[in-house]
Amino acid sequence: MNNNKAITDEDRGDHKYDAIVVGSGISGGWAAKELCEAGLKTLVLERGRMVEHLKDYPTATLAPWELPHRGRLKEEILKENPIVSRCYAFNEATEQFFVKDHEQPYIQEKPFDWIRGYQVGGKSLIWARQTQRWSDYEFEGPARDGFAVDWPIRYKDLAPWYSHVERFAGISGNKDGIINLPDSEMLPPFELNCVEKHIQQKVKEYYTDRQVIIGRCAHLTQPGKIHEEQGRHQCMARSLCDRGCPFGGYFSSNASTLPWAEKTGNLTIRPYSVVHSIIYDERLQKATGVRVIDARTKATTEYYARIIFVNGSTLNSNILLLNSTSGRFPEGLGNDSGVLGHYVAFHNYRGNITASIAGFKESYYYGRRPTTAFMPSFRNVFSQQTDFLRGYMVAFSAARSGWQRGSWMEGTGEELKEQLTDPGDWGIYMMMQGETVPKYENYVRLSKDKKDAWGIPQLIISVGYDENDEKLMKDFLEQGSEMLERSGCKDISTRDTGQAPGLDIHEMGGIRMGKDAKTSVLNKWNQVHSCKNVFVTDGSCMTSVGNQNPSLTFMALTARAANHAIEELKKNNL
Ligand SMILES: Cc1cc2nc3c(=O)[nH]c(=O)nc-3n(C[C@H](O)[C@H](O)[C@H](O)COP(=O)(O)OP(=O)(O)OC[C@H]3O[C@@H](n4cnc5c(N)ncnc54)[C@H](O)[C@@H]3O)c2cc1C
């Protein structure tokens, strides 16, 4: 492809839009909604196939016995796909929404499980929907603890945008009044079960710095008018969400932002469109469009717009900017600082704990609640307390074993059947979500000789854990065990899964925001410092990663940036 071609208006023809959005996942969906609502003719370029809400959820209503292998994947699929098979959500009912390993190879300089969803809706179809706001303890983290660079924004800058996206998406939870986990705009919460309430009570008795809450999640527990207008209905607590929801009970781009954008008449979605690079015009000193490769035919084409939103998800957006070279930007678009691709971070999920608890036999729970109990970070929040930096959230759930335990029960015939009609003992599963510290050495770059099927250089990923992560995990295993022990649990067993980075599916950074163009790629409005009509608003923009689930913050940053772009366009500044 010619990277320096001069484009005339005639060339542009009907390939001209006001705005281009690369990617239709969680963040791209939000960009499309905001831009279309403001009247901008918006082209969403999506590398995957079309997935239409309701129509394209083939397994959504299947019972286990209607799936050929009861939900399990065939041995050969598992063998051919060691990376994606490690994701808990990849199974016979959901495999159509995951990228198989061979589809887009990448080079693991250090082990990294890159989990991807390439289709209209991206990973919004298969995410676990846990949504918490950041607080200033996260935004101030790098400056306070001396790593990465200072965020160019604070909580007050994002708070109204959190409200904006929460009202539309629908977030269920309690207003818990926790300073480092600010309250969202809430729909009614799901409920903790009796064992979780018991642990909640014990934690309250023993600790002044810890709180157990019900998880906040993007589910419609009580749809409002705005959700009904989207055609969405109440969550039925089926917990089959990652097959696509026939009720629109959870937030996905497919059920929510994309159809909303479409209703404006301003949206064009073009599936099977792999964006190869961004076209930079040296004379105008701005981006004029993108080069696209048809995923099926490999035919190349170009699309043009006044502004470009990059929402391919963290690592794909890194590829796109690194691959967008020109005379002005030989090392990748906006890479004057040399930090493009660097400071990639993720969440440390390595530790987990299992336990049992006696009693509570008279109690059960209704439905399949799509969330769990959570404990906001309690380590190093207000001051440095430990020999590691930052902290972790804790998620846990208690459940009774079901009929599946029959395979290891004694007895046969009627006796066995009798036993199986009763729920079994209570077990507890606890996990961590730890903040990792972004470092220059954790980075991605493009291969000089290996390309993918579309002629785009393969990504080399060099991202690993460090001593801080080990210490943080050790602390979680100690603190978690202590909390469970004080709650009267038995058989407490701790485990380091040793899982590679990436499997958390919360990779962030590489195109970070910052105050200074010398040390960051994006300004406080997610604009590339040196190419202001390109906005990057997915996880790649994150200066640090906090301990909260990240996607709600991507949504709020995207809505904020899109509205800034709209204002700047009105003023003819872009
Ligand atoms: C099993 C699972 C559980 C998760 N649980 C949670 C959770 O509980 N809470 C949470 O906050 N997050 C969770 N996540 C993470 C969440 O899904 C992501 O943070 C979120 O989807 C990122 O949004 P995005 O818009 O950046 O990327 P995506 O949603 O991945 O969308 C990116 C889109 O861009 C397209 N694309 C990529 N490159 C190109 C290109 N070059 N040209 C054209 N199109 C392109 C892709 O095909 C895709 O459709 C989970 C993810 C998974 C898989």
Bound molecules: flavin-adenine dinucleotide
* Cα gyration radius (Å): 24 Å
Q: Could you say which overall geometry the principal axes of the C-alpha atoms support?
A: globular
Q: Report the average pLDDT across residues.
A: 96
Summarize the amount of helix as a percent range: 10-25%
Q: Structural class, judged by helices and strands?
A: alpha/beta
The main pleated sheet reads as: 7 strands, antiparallel
First-to-last CA distance: 26 Å
Number of contiguous helices: 13
Model regions low in confidence, pLDDT < 50 over at least 5 residues: 1-5
Number of strands: 23
The fraction of residues assigned to DSSP E strands is 15-25%
Report on this model:
This protein is 23% helix and 20% strand. By secondary structure, the chain is an alpha/beta fold. The strands form 6 sheets. Strands 6, 13, 14, 15, 16, 17 and 20 form a 7-stranded antiparallel β-sheet that branches. Strand 1, helix 2 (26-37) and strand 2 form a beta-alpha-beta unit. The longest helix has 20 residues, at 467-486. Flavin-adenine dinucleotide (FAD) binds at residues 22-28, 45-48, 87, 89, 115, 117-119, 122-124, 126-130, 273-275, 311-313, 316, 320, 505, 538-539, 549-551, 554.
